[in-house]
């Protein structure tokens, strides 16, 4: 039996290695720039220093200093490396392959892997910073007219589930989970007085960028749930809750994020129990009405 799955040969992530080795020497603002580049490598290829500075919220000089502090001659040198590495490195498949290689021995490993990942994530969720953010987020959601939940891919399924859970408890909620220009129709639902939960693991894709821009334009408070401790969207968000990615470098699980969403939902529901009871009673009545028509 081979030691690894096909196509999983080790490849060096030069940028990632340099960032890890030099992070301690970077200032706070330079760290923000470095993390943005790390999280949005493909996007960086099409941006100038001025454009990057505007998106990150720093000066273009800070962008250049950060790039040089990481050992590159300039932005052109950095882009050359990123361009070549993006053609070789598929992070998602690499993580999945790593996980499968670890788990294929027996079922017990799979059980232990999931339990360990959940335990670590829940422990992190209950640290003081996250607990404060959860409390703050629940307060924001309680005062909102409606609640939107943004997510793409697997997070889109979580967004849909969360809005259904909120709705059945008497709250007005909607999901923003389409991709491409189809998302524009959903974004029309955003309105002043709403609150928005945004689920994003790492990269700032065009859908989340457009959603954040529209939410900020309408002064809608954003609750960011992310896998990055220093996410580049944090400065555009009212509250930030960090659900770290796999501690082993394997594929990420979505259960911990679901737990976070259910904490927020129950926190809002618990503030007005009568509203939930009234809604559930109405739901039961509607179900009876439907059954009677069989």
Automatic annotation (TrEMBL):
Coiled-coil ranges from the UniProt annotation: none
CDD domains, A to Z: SIS (cd04795)
PROSITE patterns on file: HTH_RPIR, SIS
Keyword presence, Acetylation: no
Record bears the keyword Transcription regulation: no
GO molecular function, one term: DNA-binding transcription factor activity
Keywords, ordered alphabetically: Glycolysis
Entry-linked SUPFAM superfamilies: Homeodomain-like, SIS domain
Any one biological process term the GO annotation gives: glycolytic process
Residues annotated as domain HTH rpiR-type: 13-89
Residues in SIS domain copies: 137-273
Name the UniProt record assigns to this protein: Transcriptional regulator, RpiR family
Organism: Advenella mimigardefordensis (strain DSM 17166 / LMG 22922 / DPN7)
